[in-house]
Amino acid sequence: MDTMTTILQPDHATIPGVSTPAKSRAARRVHGLSDRTIAWLFVAPTIALLLAINIFPLIWMIRLSFTNLNLSMSYLPLRFVGLDNFSDILNDEDVWFRLQTTAQFVISSVALQVVVGFGLALLINRQFRGHSFWTTIILLPMMLSPAVVGNFWTLLLQPQIGPFNYLISLFTGVPPSSFSMTGQVSLAPWTIVLVDTWMWAPYVMLICLAGLRSIPDYIYEAAEVDRASAWRQFWSITLPMTVPFLMLAVLFRAIENFKMFDMVNLLTSGGPGSTTELVSISLKRAAFEKWRTGYSSALAIILFVTVFGAANIYVKTLNKVKQR
Amino acid sequence: MRRLGWLRSTAASVVVAAAALGGLGGGQAAAQGKQLTLCWAAWDPANALVELGKDFTKQSGIEMKYEFVPWTSYADRFLNELNSHGKLCDLIIGDSQWIGGAAENKWYVKLNDFFDKEHISMDDFVPATVVGYSQWPKNTPNYWALPAMADAVGWTYRKDWFARPEIQSAFKAKYGRDLAPPKTYDELKQIGEFFQGREIDGKKVYGAYIFTERGSEGITMGVTNVLYNYGFAYDNPKKPYQMQGIVNSADAAKGLEFYKELYKCCTAPGMTNAYMQEGLDAFKSGQVAMQMNWFAFFPGLYKDPNVGGDKIGFFVNPAGPKGHFTQLGGQGISVVATSDHKDDALAYIKWFAQPAVQQKWWQIGGYSALKAVVDAPDFPKSAAFAPQFLESMGIVKDFWAEPSYAQLLLDMQKRVHDYVVADKGTAQQALDLLVKDWTKVFKEQGKEVASQ
Asked: Do A75 and B106 touch (CB under 8 A)?
C-alpha cells in the first residue's frame, strides 16, 4: 500500500504552477484511499458498463414480461398481467413444438459434430504430408459468417441448379430436381443439421485436438510395453483422457445451437411450414415482427432459465468427470 | 485575384438570374444545405423515384437522400425505426397495411390540414388507393399519406410460347380451346399443367410461378388472389371482426385447396420459399410460362432483352367461381412525425402531387394513382401492361390494415405455409386455426369479436 501511494503521490517539486495547499489536499485524498477503494475504482467502469448493458436490460425485461406491452400498439394502456404471459407460453402447443424442434436440432447436430469433429481430430493428430494445409482447409468453414454459410448453402441446395442434388443424383440415380433439401418436411430438419455440422465440426475438432495433444506420450509408451492393442489404447487412454474436452465442446456447441438463428433463418426461414422453426426464430418473430414485447420477454426468460439451468447441471457433471 | 473576382460576380449574376426567372431563387438560397431522407423498399420503382427526385432538388434546392431496404427486411427495419421514434426518415413510403398502426401510434403526420391548405384533393386519386394507402380509419376522411405507388398483383406470360403453332395445336387437341391468357383460375391451372415439364427449345419448362415465401408476407400475398375469388373475406361486412364462418367458410377452404393444387401441379421444383425476386428470376431465365408478381416489376420485365418486348404478355389476376378480385399492393407517402424537417417533407409531397410530376412518375417506371394520369385517354396505350393495371386497380382488395396487422399477417403466413407447402392438416383446419389466431389478436387489441 505504501508503495502504491508513494507512486500515486505527485512530486510537488516537479509540477510547476500548482499551489501547495491544493497539492497537499490531492495528496491527502490519494493517500487516504484503501486497497479496497482503489480496487473498486478500477473495477467500477466495468461494473457500470455491465449494469448498463446487461443487468439493467435484464431487469427491465423481467418487468416487461409481466405486462401486456405490444410495441405495434403502444397507444394501448400498459397493464400488469401477472403471470399471464408465462402461462400463455407454457400452455401453447406451438411453443412446445418449437422447443421439441430445437431439442431435436441441438441433439442431432451436436452429436454429429462430436463424432465428425473427434474423428477429424484423430486424423489430424497424426503427422502426414500436407498436414498444415489440410488442417487449414478443414478449419475454413468455421471462419465464415453464418449469413454467408446460409446463402452459400441455399445456392448449393437449389434443386435445379445446385450441385448438391446432382451429387446425390450421381450416387442414387434419383433425378436432381425431384427433391428439395430445404423445401421438404422430411429433409429440411436434416439439412439444417448437415449444414451446421459442416460449419462447426472443425470447432469440435480443434477442442478435441487440444485434448489429444495434452495426453503425455509416456502413457502410450507404457501401454506399448504392456502390449496393449491400438483399440485398447483408444478405449483405455485416448477416449477417457479427452472426455472432459469433448464435454466442453458439447457444452459450447449446445448453448450456441440452442440460440441458433441466422443460418437456419437464411436456409429455410423456419419452413417448410413450421418444420424448422427453432425457438429462437419464434422469439424473434414474437419480439420484432409481431412486436409482442411482454410475451416475448416472458419467452426469453423461460429460455434463459432453461439454458442456464441445463448448463449448470452440465458443468457440475463436467467437474465430476474431471475429478475422476 | 481578378479571376476570382470575375468568378464571384458571375456566380452572383447566375443566382440573381435564377431568382428572377424561376421565382424559386429565394427558396433555393434558403434551402442551401437542406436535406431530406426518404425511406422505401429497394426495388425498381425506387430507382425511378431517385431520378424523379432530381427535379425536386433542382426546383427547391433540397438535397434528397434515400434509405432503401430489401423487401424481406423492409417491414422489420422501418417499423422498428418508427416504433423507436427514430429520426432516420423524414418521408416514408410505408406499406398499405401499416396505415392503421402508423395513425394510431401517431408515427405519421395527419395530412388533412395540409391537403386543404394546398388544395390537394383525394378525389383526384384512384379511390382504391385512397382507401388503401391514405385513410385511417378506412372509409373516413382522415388522411395520413398521399397515394404514391399504385400497385396490385398481376400476371405475365410467355407470349412467344403461347403463339407457337405446335403449342397452340397441342393445347387445342388436349383441352378443346385456343391457348390464350386465362380468364379464370381453372383455365390458368389447365395452362399450367399443359406447360409443366414440357420441353421448349431443348429446355424443360414449368407451368406457373406463384408466391410461397414463408418469412415475411409472400405466401399470404399470393394465396389471397385465389381466396378472394373463391369467396374468402376478412370479416362480416355487417359485423366488423366477426370472422367465424367467413374466413373459414367452405368456399374459402376450396380456394386454399386450389392454391395448393396449383403449387403441386404447376410450379418449378424448389419453389418452397419464393417471392418477388425468385419469380423474376424464374421468368427471366425462361423457366416458367406464367408468373404471378406485382405490376411494379412489369416495366423492368418488359425491357428485359431475353423475355421482354414481343415475348412477354400480361393478364389480370383470373376470376374464380365467387368473384373477380386481386391483391392490392402499393404504398402511400407520409411525413414521419418525429422528423425535424416536416415543412420540407410537406413541400416534397406538394411537389409530388402535381399532375406533371405524376405523369413523369408513370413514364419513368413508377405507378401513379392520380386520376388525371390513369384516366387520360391515351393511358391504356402508354405501356403494354397499362390496360391490365387499370383493370386490376378497379378490383383490388387489401389485407388487414389494423395496428396489429403484423401479427395477423404472420399468423396467416404460418397457417397457409403449413398447409400448402408442409402438407400439414386440411385446408379447413388451417383456416379454422387462422380464425382462432386472429380472434386472439383482436381480443388482445381490445376489439369485440362476435363468434357468429
From this structure: yes
Full set of structural domains in chain B with CATH: 34-151+330-376 (3.40.190.10), 153-327+410-444 (3.40.190.10)
Outline where chain A has alpha helix (H). 2-8, 20-31, 35-50, 56-64, 84-90, 93-124, 131-143, 146-156, 163-172, 188-213, 217-225, 230-233, 239-258, 262-268, 279-288, 293-323
What is the per-residue pLDDT across A13-41, written as a single tens digit (0 to 9) for each? 444 544 555 555 555 556 678 999 999 99
- Is residue A24 domain-shared with residue A133, that is, in the same domain? no
- Tally Cβ neighbours within 10 Å of residue A261: 15
CB of B105 less than 8 A from some CB of A: yes
Q: Is B26 helix (H, G, I), strand (E, B) or coil?
A: helix
Q: How far is Cα B438 from Cα B419, in angstroms, rounded to an integer?
A: 17
Domain termination residue (choose one: A47, A73, A99):
A73
**Nearest residue on chain A to B212, judged by CA atoms?**
A272
Q: Do A271 and B422 touch (CB under 8 A)?
A: yes
Mutate to test the interface with A, among B410, B421, B434 (most CBs of A within 10 A): B421
The pTM of this model reads 0.86
| Number of domains within chain A | 2
Give the gap in angstroms from C-alpha B411 to the nearest C-alpha of chain A.
Answer: 9
A291 and A205, same structural domain?
yes
Considering the domain architecture, whether residues A29 and A107 belong to the same structural domain is answered as: no
Q: Tell me, yes or no, whether A167 lies in a domain.
A: yes
**ipTM of this model?**
0.81
The tens digit of pLDDT for each residue in B347-406 reads: 999 999 999 999 999 999 999 999 999 999 999 999 999 999 999 999 999 999 999 999
Judged by CB atoms closer than 8 Å, whether chains meet at A273 and B414 is answered as: yes
Mark yes or no for CB contact B272/A68 under 8 Å: no
Cα separation of B290 and B360, whole Å?
30
pLDDT computed for residue B1 by the predictor: 39
Q: Does one domain contain both A41 and A161?
A: no
Q: Please, which residues bridge with residue B68 across strands? A: B40
Q: Which domain holds residue A62?
A: 2-73
Q: Are residues A225 and A251 in the same domain?
A: yes
